[in-house]
Amino acid sequence: MTAPEVAAWWATSVSRIEPGVIELRGRPIQELIGNIGMAELIYLMLRGAPAPAGQAALLEAALVAGADHGPHAPSIAIARMTATCGVGLNSAIANGVNALGDVHGGAGQQCLSLLDEIVAGAPAASVVARVRYFPGFGHRFHPVDPRRAPMLALVRRAVDEGVVAGRHLAAALAVEEVLGPRVPMNVDCLTAIVYGELGFEPPLARGLFALSRSIGILAHAWEETQGGRRIKGPIPPTILPEYRG
């Protein structure tokens, strides 16, 4: 391959790295350090431009909302078990994040895809009727997700202040009205609203959830390493699985 072909192999608009130079989306790293927060950096890296006023705060709220849901969440339980097996925290985090699939961790992406349809003009009732269940609504643990009220308040305030348009918020509220009060929106829908309002594509909803949840995964994995237990399985060793052979 010629030098230009090699240079084009990993061509990127995300960062420029040369001897003595680190630029992220065209911004020198020395201008960013100490001057922007992590949510602002995430927005810059993913969107290629600084977040408009108020939007980074919404993104940060969504990241905080999805950070943790206790060791009964498979991603965190897996990370805690992995941490007792003699591997580093990076392996524990990777194993936890790798459990985030279509069922556990993917509802935000699925929800945003459906909300996008409603924003584009599809009636909420017809979209609800088409799917077996609407991802992002109801919760196996909480009658009403405690993250619902504060997240909705933040988005509504952002709409009132002109920070975001409110189309995804309106779509989610329409779905909630169709489903009824016994199936309120959960954190996956709440964060999908934010990501949609900020212009992120549905696959990024899953990526951002994984980024958010990795914080909780790290905290749980680190806590587990401090306990001294080795090879911690999914159930206490005094309880044996039921044999059905």
Structure report:
With 245 residues, the protein is mainly alpha-helical. It has two domains: 13-51, no CATH class; 74-225, Cytochrome P450-Terp, domain 2 (Cytochrome p450-Terp, domain 2). It contains twelve helices and three strands. β2 and β3 form a beta hairpin. The termini are far apart. The model has no long low-confidence stretch (mean pLDDT 96).
Explain briefly what this protein structure is.
By secondary structure, this protein is mostly helical.
Name the CATH homologous superfamily of the largest domain: Cytochrome P450-Terp, domain 2
Q: Element order, helices and strands?
A: HEEEHHHHHHHHHHH
For the biggest sheet, the summary is: 3 strands, antiparallel
**Average pLDDT:** 96
Provide the CATH architecture of the largest domain. Orthogonal Bundle
Q: Provide the number of structural domains.
A: 2
How big a fraction of the residues is strand?
Answer: under 5%
Major β-sheet strand ordering: 1-2-3
Note the total helix count: 12
The low-pLDDT segments are none
Helical content, roughly?
40-55%
Q: Count of DSSP E strands?
A: 3
From the helix content, strand content and strand pairing, which structural class follows?
mainly alpha
